[in-house]
Amino acid sequence: MKDMITGAEALMRSLEHQGVKTIFGYPGGSIMPVFDALYDHRKTLNHILVRHEQGAAHAAQGFARVSGEVGVCLVTSGPGATNTITGIADAMIDSTPLVVIAGQVGTGFLGTDAFQEVDLVGITQPIAKWSYQIRSAEDVPWAVARAFYVAKSGRPGPVVLDFAKNAQVEKTEYIPTKLDYIRSYQPVPEMDDLAIRQAAELINNAERPLVLVGQGVELGGAQQELRAFIEKAGMPAGCTMLGLSALPTAHPLNKGMLGMHGNLGPNINTNKCDVLIAVGMRFDDRVTGKLDTYAKQAKIIHFDIDPAEIDKNVKTDIAVLGDCKETLAAVTELLTPATHQEWLDSFLPYEKVEDEKVIRPELHPAGKSLSMGEVVRAVSEATNNEAILVTDVGQNQMMSARYFKFSKERSIVTSGGLGTMGFGLPAAIGATFGRPDRTVCVFMGDGGLQMNIQELGTIMEQKAPVKIILLNNNFLGNVRQWQAMFFNRRYSFTPMLNPDYMKIASAYEIPSRRVMKREELKGAIEEMLATDGPFLLEACVMEEGNVLPMTPPGGSVNQMLLEC
């Protein structure tokens, strides 16, 4: 007879069998047997003790986004589990593979309002790819194998395992289990040869094709296939925020970022192209603006792995379903080499206007105050444009996306769909574990930093080499900008009274420096990058700086404001 082990020990062995090496978590009553089992697996399973369960979820996201592996977090029941909800929702909308394992009261107590009982499966079903309650120890290997397969297959996403306490302590035989098939679940639709031929024909006959590059290119590892696709047909490309590092910033066909705070050229030419080719993106409202006026003149080709995205927001003429690594290559084979020089040249006037009215004033401000954009660009250039960019949410996020440059893939980690303030700091911690060979720079506002500031404790304990750049303007900047533009400068609860961040950094034994003058910036960045381990650089930037251009809310994608 095989050895009998506890469900908690079965979980440890199952995680090891899935290749897990890093876990982000926080112990508590209903998950204690699992943490006890983890004590004997410390050499193989590196558990990072965060300071809040939301931090665990976001750290696991950061880890997953840069490594391409599944992020794992381990928490207790009740408030421990509900504290991960924001991270689960964030991972769902941004297609991040995550497995959240939460303790639960014993099955005999379910439904009795027991201490720290909450219906986690019921809460998370709408915001996860799969939620499952493990009620017996023998279920563990199967449930873990299924969880990892669902999380990483097809369009990735979060999976929740609700682990009842009795199942953690019961004994079972352990049989190593892996899954690569679930009945009725088709993670990757079969490639349709007719759609491939139709897409190629439409592109070959196009005079003004425009490619929209989404995060799906990164998730599918299709960066080289994308380059071959656009280069063969000489097609300009714009990138969504999450897709920014799928194509090097310096690539001659990369025309910049799409969306509300994107670049003029790709946004305006969206409504001038004759064929619009979306690759692994979901036509988010921040990209499309007013749908009634979005690319009405164009034929739409949509490459996606998820059939639910087709025709969801924008009516598609040709849907190319499947893994874009395969579908892009298949279409590229049928393309006729082209240049579209006249069409490419049409971007130049917009680039010139944007450079004169927005980019140059941001990177070389007339006044004495530092601008957000100049700080971002200076950090990017000091890392030779090779760092991983992590952002929080708000003006810091938009300025980072606009002025950071990318030369390597999987180099942007940001909360796109949910827009979660407090995401940046823990996500950056996760990124340092996912890619310890790369420099991780996180840009934050004073609002977002304070939302999960306790994770400085995690950085202190782990000596995680997070380079924190705080763009401090003493405001909730993004909301303040909207109040300035659309609410007659009625700054309702957006001014921030801030603590002394140098003292806070010192308390957490994190080296730090505050910069108020332009001439101090270069030296401070050099000191930050030369310092082993973490560093907090506080850049005191102009209080009422604005992110431009901007498509006003509800406006058309080609109606971008250059001033406010």
Automatic annotation (TrEMBL):
Its cofactor is Mg(2+); thiamine diphosphate. Keywords: Amino-acid biosynthesis, Branched-chain amino acid biosynthesis, Magnesium, Metal-binding, Thiamine pyrophosphate, Transferase. Gene3D superfamilies: 3.40.50.970, TPP-binding domain. GO terms for biological process: isoleucine biosynthetic process; L-valine biosynthetic process. Residues 6-121 form the Thiamine pyrophosphate enzyme N-terminal TPP-binding domain. Coiled coil: none annotated. SUPFAM superfamilies: DHS-like NAD/FAD-binding domain, Thiamin diphosphate-binding fold (THDP-binding). This is Acetolactate synthase. It comes from Bacteroides stercorirosoris.
